[in-house]
Amino acid sequence: MICAISVIAMLFACKSDKKDINDLANDMILQPQMEISQADTAEVLGQVQRYLNLLQDKQYDDAIAMIFFLDKDSIINLPEKMKKDVVEKIYPRLRGKRYEIDRMTFLNEKDNLVRCNVIYFDNVPGKETLPNSTAFYLKPVRRDGRWYLTLADSQTDTNSQDGTGTEIGY
User: Fold this and answer.
1) pLDDT the model gives residue 164
2) In whole angstroms, what is the distance from residue 15 CA to residue 5 CA?
């Protein structure tokens, strides 16, 4: 009798710990930690599209001028050496036929991502499995109600908890 009561108690205890799919999703998926308005989304989308258009038109100096650097809590222009390295070493690898915004993720003021695709050539029918693109990420940062584009890379993105903040030892 005591054994049966113990088994029933264990079943009820286990049953109450079960979570449905929505509870699991809420536990596993990062939820935004700030309010995002339609105007915020439109502003970031517009900045990223302008940046991609400048890359498409090979206006690299204008494109890099749109990129900022988050130094702890201050937004500053990219250091000149970093600008030069991006224009000379990274942009040549991103010369594609077209550029597309794949997705945007907003979490908090310092930790947001925009995935951009560079399409190098159109797929040929029957050879759709041939890789024709690559992706890169931008990190929009909101400071004092204004959005800035920053790079998501090893030089400026050393701690995803703090956005792109890092010491400028470049």
Assistant:
1) 42
2) 15
